[in-house]
Amino acid sequence: MSRPSSPRGLLLCSLACFLVVAATPVRPAVPAERQPVSLTPMSEAVKAELAPNGRLRAALNYGNFLLVSARAPEHAGVAPDLARELARRANATVEFVGYENAGVAADAAKERAWDVAFIGAEPARAGEITFTPAYVEIEVGYLVPGNSKLWSVDDVDHDDVRIVSAARAAYTLYLQRTLRHATLVEADGAQGAADRFTRENFDVMADLMPRLLDEVQRMPATRLIPGRFTAVQQSIGVRKERVAAAAYLAAFADEIKTSGLLASLIEKHGASGLTIAR
Q1: Rounded distance between C-alpha atoms, residue 185 and residue 199, angstroms
Q2: If you average pLDDT over each of 11-25, 38-52, 183-197, which comes out highest?
Q3: What total number of domains does the chain contain?
Q4: Residues 28-32: what's their mean pLDDT?
Q5: What 3-state DSSP class applies to 29?
Q6: What's the CA gap between 3 and 14, in Å, rounded?
Q7: At what angle do helices 261-268 and 78-89 cross, to 10 degrees?
Q8: What are the C-alpha distances in Å from 258 to residues 162, 172, 196, 250, 263?
Q9: At what angle do helices 243-259 and 261-268 cross, to 10 degrees?
Q10: How far lies 242's CA from each of 14, 51, 76, 89, 165, in Å?
């Protein structure tokens, strides 16, 4: 094609080129983190194990306020939302089965009272339950009176030290396995441990770090020992015989950590204190 030689021709050519470019749709670049996420496909065999008869019964630990933030008017929190996502993929309804602590929830596996459980993974619970790798973890620490002579985590395990902790909590089971000298006393739940700590003059209270941060504000004459003595690994569990479901949930736990779903739920529910497990 010949080039226009006159100024008017050049102007008309430039205008035509501009109109062609302007009419061409421009697709904005999509950041890598916003690319569609491949969901872990759920087979019919998995659906049959996770949600028999189209109903998924999800066990929740009401004692873990970071995972279950409300029971009414409807269940809310990271764990209930993950259960809803599993039910959606199984094309099933979800039914929540609540327990006051994780130990009671684990016991209920023998009674086939639930299909999937959102509780801490502990060796003491592995006889009846297959756990996924952890999807989140929660740091656990010690609270002591302000005038205590204990200043480090290593100072706690001595003969003259009395520790109060919530019965059957994952961190209490950890202490039962690892303490060699200190005396461990179990209380009825986290609030029961806090009540006994002040009423009975215990040397130490063990609890989830987010709860201890609240307690130290509520009880001014106390302080936290720096650092953590363990971190509770929160997992998803199924009964031992449900092999297909266990394999699926292991992949699901990995998917929610890498897809951004878990991070979004932690932010949605303001679950400060939950750390995505590596």
Answers
A1: 14
A2: 183-197
A3: 2
A4: 34
A5: coil
A6: 12
A7: 140
A8: 41, 30, 41, 13, 9
A9: 70
A10: 69, 11, 27, 17, 33
Read off the amino acid at residue 116: V
DSSP-derived letter for residue 220 is T
Assess contact for 57 and 118: CB atoms under 8 A.
Answer: no
Query: CA 193 → CA 6, 70, 172, distances in Å?
Result: 92, 21, 11
Give CA–CA dist 114/180, Å, rounded: 36
Q: Which residue type, as a one-letter code, is found at position 182?
A: A
Strand-pair partners of 107: none
DSSP-assigned letters across all residues of 131-182: EPSPSEEEEEEEEEETT-S--SGGGSSSTT-EEEEETT-HHHHHHHHH-SSS
- Looking at the structure, do residues 222 and 91 belong to the same domain, yes or no? no
Average pLDDT over residues 167-181: 96
**pTM for the whole thing?**
0.80
Cα distance between residue 224 and residue 212, in whole Å: 8
Q: Give the CATH number for residue 122.
A: 3.40.190.10
Which tokens in the block code for residue 29? 């670049």
Q: Mean pLDDT over residues 143-153, rounded?
A: 98
Task: Burial-class residue 189 by CB neighbours within 10 Å (0-12, 13-18, 19+).
Answer: middle
Segments forming the whole domain that contains residue 152: 138-230
Distance between CA 70 and CA 81 in Å, rounded?
12
CA distance 234 to 139: 11
pLDDT of 54 over the 70 cut: yes
48 and 133 in a single domain? The answer is yes
226 and 242 in a single domain? The answer is no
Phi–psi pair at 112, nearest 5 degrees: 55, 40
> Do the domain assignments include residue 29?
no
